[in-house]
Design goal:
five-stranded mixed β-sheet; alpha/beta; five-stranded antiparallel β-sheet; 11 helices; about 35% helix
Length: about 350
């Protein structure tokens, strides 16, 4: 009797958990339309003297100040590291691709006078003392935003209002506040299946074009406030298959299975999928090619073009810059995953 009672109690407990999970799924969508989805990790573009996080939109510059080169003074070594880091963050920023043909550094060739130091607003990120080595040093990391009011994108737009560039038109003046409504979808452009020699490269002002050559997405077609806040695109890496991004029912079943409820039948959740969400949180489209001299423009099929136009007419998914690009970068993905997990741990202990 005791063993039978234990079995029934265990089964009752498991069924209660299923009910709780199902209710949570019904009333609290499993996937947020925010970029903070755990299936996406930052694409990190690394340099010898810094890096760019194309998901969060942050440029990092690193400088080292060795004690033995700075009179063994910690104060002087830190100051030296800060100066070097400031120079390095400008070096990283100079290499940022503006569009399919230009980097910020190459603008000078077009007779456009832009002082990069005036556009990059950096702040101190962290200072570390590396001491358990033969020649100890201080390492200073500075960071500068690509997005936001103080970000490089915003500064560029302001500059372009006085010094226009060929093929880069200004965004539309802001008509309404930028919405973070989770009911609104994000466009996910999956560029992971392209040949290695034709991989997509991140840029501040990428374009989305159709097979017929129609430009669907560029600066002149977006809202200025949305562009300043989000940037034209967030670049991420992911090991989630395309089906996992589009099939919410399948994802729910996988979550239940991982929780130990593999005996849950299809009938138990049949008909619930329609109640969980009124629209897919992600509109996933395949990138057919990376176009432009620096592979920054994204080409999609004519069928996807028609569907995207229809979606944009109702949700303004493009006008509001709700665009995510999944690129291939195992190294960036690993580094990004570690950074993201550390950030979550750090937030949790504050």
């Amino acid at each position: 009797m005791k063993s039978e009672f234990s079995f029934l109690s265990d089964r009752t407990f498991r069924l209660k958990i299923i009910v709780l999970l199902t209710v949570s799924i019904l009333f609290f969508p499993v996937f947020s339309s925010s970029i903070e989805d755990d299936r996406f990790y930052p694409f990190i573009e690394t340099y010898p003297y810094g890096k760019i996080d194309w998901d969060s939109g942050i440029i990092y510059g690193i400088g080292r100040g060795y004690l033995h080169l700075n009179k063994n003074s910690e104060t002087i070594a830190v100051r030296a590291a800060q100066v070097i880091a400031a120079g390095n963050i400008l070096k990283v920023a100079a290499g940022v691709r503006l569009d399919d043909r230009r980097t910020l550094e190459s603008l000078g060739k077009e007779r456009v006078v832009i002082q990069l130091s005036a556009l990059v607003r950096y702040t101190l990120y962290k200072t570390e003392f590396i001491k358990n080595i033969k020649q100890p040093y201080y390492e200073v990391t500075l960071r500068a935003p690509l997005t936001g009011v103080e970000g490089l994108t915003s500064m560029l737009i302001t500059k372009l209002k006085t010094v226009p560039l060929e093929r880069i038109n200004l965004p539309n003046p802001s008509g309404e506040s930028v919405s973070d409504d989770e009911e609104k979808p994000w466009l996910v452009l999956d560029a992971r299946n392209l040949p290695k020699k034709d991989l997509v490269k991140p840029a501040i002002f990428p374009r989305i074009i159709s097979e017929k050559g129609e430009t669907l997405y560029e600066t002149s077609k977006v809202d200025e406030s949305a562009l300043v806040k989000r940037g034209m695109a967030r670049y991420v890496v992911s090991d989630e298959p395309k089906e996992g991004l589009t099939s919410q029912k399948k994802s729910v079943d996988q979550i239940l299975a991982r929780a130990g409820f593999s005996f849950l039948t299809d009938e138990a959740v049949a008909g619930d999928n329609e109640k969980r969400t009124k629209r897919q949180n992600y509109i996933v489209k395949d990138v057919k090619e990376a176009r432009g001299l620096m592979n920054t423009n994204l080409l999609i099929s004519d069928t996807d073009t028609r569907q995207l136009k229809s979606e944009d007419a109702s949700s303004q998914i493009l006008k509001q810059c709700r665009v995510i690009v999944i690129v291939s970068s195992p190294i960036g993905g690993v580094e990004g995953k570690i950074d993201k997990l550390l950030a979550k741990v750090s937030d949790g202990i504050r």
